[in-house]
Here is the input.
Amino acid sequence: MNPKHFETNAIRQQTDRTQYSEHSTPLFLTSSFTFPDGETMRDTFAGQGDKLIYSRYSNPNTDEFIRKVCQMEGAEAGFATASGMAAVFASMAAFLKSGDHVLSSRAVFGSTHQILTQILNRWGITYSYVDPEDVNRWHEQVQENTKMLIVETPSNPGLTLVDLEKAGQFAKAHKLIFNIDNCFATPYLQQPIRYGADLVVHSGTKWMDGQGRILGGVIVGNQQLIDEITFFCRHTGPAMAPFNAWILSKSLETLHIRMDRHCNNALQMAIFLEQHESIAQVRYPHLPSHPQYDLAKKQMKLGGGLVSFEVKGGADAAMHFLNGLALCSLTSNLGDSRTICTHPASTTHSKLSEEERLAVGINQGLVRISVGLENIEDLKMDVGNALNY
Ligand SMILES: *Cc1c(COP(=O)(O)O)cnc(C)c1O
Here is the structure.
């Protein structure tokens, strides 16, 4: 039987490499794997058969996790890494060489911005930023040596969307490797490969684990591109630990239910905030006031677990709000069963200049809330109390 539904695959795509027919996949804590004889060992190293060699290359737990993500994203193959940033970096470094140019949406994760601006330039790789909302003008930044397009949608923390269909057509027309960080949507809400993405990257640390326990990352795509990434990662060593893969593989079994609740709570929180007099503006993709609401409805199954809002009164008012929270956590992570509030301008995006921050919509009053799985009435009470504090 070849089930087609997301949930069924998330639960039933298990490794067949168990010894005792365990119903729940066991944890394979081993650095290497043995061979019955020298010939099998030789043949395995020559790429024949399906025996495993070494956990830096592959492991039953990481393979199971990758298989599930591939099913969810509609990808042929993947590689799992120790963190989301290891995945982002490998997805670039496996393909880019000195003299290449990268086109990137301006609204990308903070550390992705650091890789583009502070690390790749050491190796003679240049970049240009484009406006995520204005795909029609991206061609103006394309150069002869442009090789890759990097996109994140929705973005952090501005929740700006990139039109995936247009971006896919653009990448194809200019023969660019279309590389998308799909962490914020998760494969449950949006599958970019359908729109022509070549590489889909995730931080497993966020909603995939969903309980704030581990770091992890994964890259999926077509076999040919993943072969190049696998070569790069096998020899540079950012592999995911089997324990983390075991946790993530189990977590994916409940991703659909958790995301339904995260998104439902987030929408209710967004509506609540929009009606509050201390709030200047609310951003949430499935809120009708979002400037890209129609696009969000088209390409995202639900609005996601994050809401951004601007409190009236700037940095002081934002700090005052955070200090008034009793239930929500103050921490920089997101995608957790616990609701989390962050002030991006002074934390996750403090390394950007004020000008760079404003270009991606981060002003001093902006607060990002990752809405968890607690009862929404309790959350609204806590946030309401903090706003009136
Ligand atoms: C968190 C995050 C990353 C980095 O992931 P880590 O697991 O923390 O390394 C990359 N991209 C996005 C969109 C993220 O939210």
User: Anything to note?
Assistant: The CA atoms of residues 306 and 370 lie 5 Å apart. The first strand starts at residue 77 and ends at 81.
